[in-house]
Amino acid sequence: MSYPYQLKNFEDYQQAWQHSVTDPEGFWANVADHFYWRRKWDKVLEWDFKQPDVKWFTGAKLNITENCLDRHLGTLGHQPAIIWEPNDPDERHRILTYRELYTKVCQFANVLKNNGVKKGDRVCIYMGMIPELAIAVLACARIGAIHSVVFGGFSAQSIADRIQDAQATLVITCDGAFRGSKDIPLKSVIDDALMACPSVKKVIVCTRTRTPVSMLKGRDVWWEDEIKQVETMGNPPVPAEEMDAEDMLFILYTSGSTGKPKGVVHTCAGYMVYANYTFINTFQYKPGQVYFCTADIGWITGHSYIVYGPLSAGATTLMFEGVPTYPDAGRFWDIVDKFRVNVLYTAPTAIRSLMGFGLGPVNHKDLSSLTTLGTVGEPINEEAWHWYKDQIGKGHCPITDTWWQTETGGIMIAPIAGVTPEKPGYATLPLPGIQPVLVDENGKEIEGNGVNGNLCIKFPWPGMIRTTYGDHERCRTTYFATFENLYFTGDGCLRDEDGYYRITGRVDDVLNVSGHRIGTAEVENAINMHAGVVESAVVGYPHEIKGQGIYAFVISEMHVKDPDLTKKDIMQTVARIIGPIAKPDKIQFVSGLPKTRSGKIMRRILRKIAEGELDNLGDTSTLLDPAVVEEIKRGKL
Ligand code: WT7
């Protein structure tokens, strides 16, 4: 494959960016020309941010899997598409060539059809990081079913909420998943979830851990048995379903400032073009390179930069089942060494945690294959940036700090590795096609450099969110109503004297814990489920490794007799309701919360206290009971 739209130098970048602003339709048509379309578009873009109503490549017909698989078979059929490294380093790795991946996707697409899945049906996928997860995702896309992948760390309750919201009819899961020293009983979690999900008619269970599971007659079937049946049928070919450009490709749930996660919807053509374009450019991927993104496919990073971006580019994508510290903190470096990885894309939280183990686990690992490094999901502090640059990249690999969101579908602001400048802690410049603006609280654009504001995007891009599943109004109010005619990201941002962007963090009630997005309201709802809890308020605070930690102020019913036990209990409750990732790091029992006379909790004060800024709480005179603040200050953890 060659990538005619891969930008090669800074002049290329500047020209492309200009072109994308003066003639966006021409710019994107040039990129889109390099895909396989059953039918080309009538119109590149129609948009209205008020509704919002955004359509890219209208009239075009395609199937994303023909772009990820079929079109590579002639040239790359024997090249590795997926390299899979298991959790246990003593287990054998697996390599799937493009031909093999194609065959497996078609087989599983047949399985889905045999189990009654049709175009437009929603399929929930709850699996560990094994190749079958990527196969399941692609098989859905092949037959036009809409996948909703739920991260393997979410609880039964969280899965049930997502299945109900999407009215999914089929679930694909595993008996269990290996993650580090843990063994997660996925099927048993699904069994609990499905008690509240009458829409689900079938469950397909893939064998991984051999954890004993119960199979419900008429509902549950084994992946392997179903494949055998397809083989018996002689592996009938599965022509890819012809999809309209704006047909839904997938739903991915993400947290916001309310208690209920929302289903971000991405559509076929725009998402495909954007995931591919950003992958090829940001990482400057060269054919034949080995690319390793350490994310989980349960998050958008895995969708765009393990599956769709790399495969549509004919790349070799490495999928890792385990965690960075198992069996020891050298695991990433062992993998880089073993497979001669060229491009490594990971999260600042992983870098910070590995940094803590010193250079022992890095020394004597051959990292000389690395050419490019990337980070994603949260701000990276300078110390971690330099460690990554010097100790991992040995000073010669560009680092791309990529800012984007579930809603944006792909990378938005980031250095193009080795092509545009980098600066520690900065996402730097927008990719061509992206028009960021900073606005004040009234929505007035803040021009010039050396300024701070709310980060918005003023023109559509192909990978953007189209709607929130089943509730378009929610999409409008969350993203398009705060500031007129702009997409609001929810992030605060600095544009420095050189015009480089630096994300300063969320300006809403959303936390970023180890790169995972968690709504404070969600955590509060979960804490309040505990029988002994009257009320709670959750805020974030700076955490050395996780970026942000979760600090919960809790009013408990009776005087807490054994505070440590009650804290453990509350943590358990949160893990059960949301998942272990949302467990508070600190719980402080209080007798009241700082509230305004109208009963609104003043989070600003709690945030300051959690951050340790006790002397700088600002005006507390409007509080109903100012004395409560003194008590909370005294009890700070
Ligand atoms: C939020 C989006 C992007 C895919 C993974 C997370 C924060 C993301 C960066 C970065 C500073 C970042 C933002 C954003 N964020 N990347 N490079 N620097 N902050 O996707 O779960 O949708 O979260 O993550 O706050 O809004 P997500």
TrEMBL record:
Return the protein name: Acetate--CoA ligase
Question: Which stretches make up the AMP-dependent synthetase/ligase domain?
Answer: 77-460
Q: Name one Pfam family in it.
A: ACAS_N
Q: Which SUPFAM superfamilies match?
A: Acetyl-CoA synthetase-like
GO terms (molecular function) for this protein are: ligase activity
Q: Which residues form the AMP-binding enzyme C-terminal domain?
A: 522-600
Occurrences of domain Acetyl-coenzyme A synthetase N-terminal (ranges): 13-68
Q: Which top EC class is given?
A: ligase
Family statement drawn from the similarity comment of this UniProt entry:
Belongs to the ATP-dependent AMP-binding enzyme family.
The protein's Enzyme Commission number: 6.2.1.1
UniProt keyword annotations, A-Z: Acetylation, ATP-binding, Ligase, Nucleotide-binding
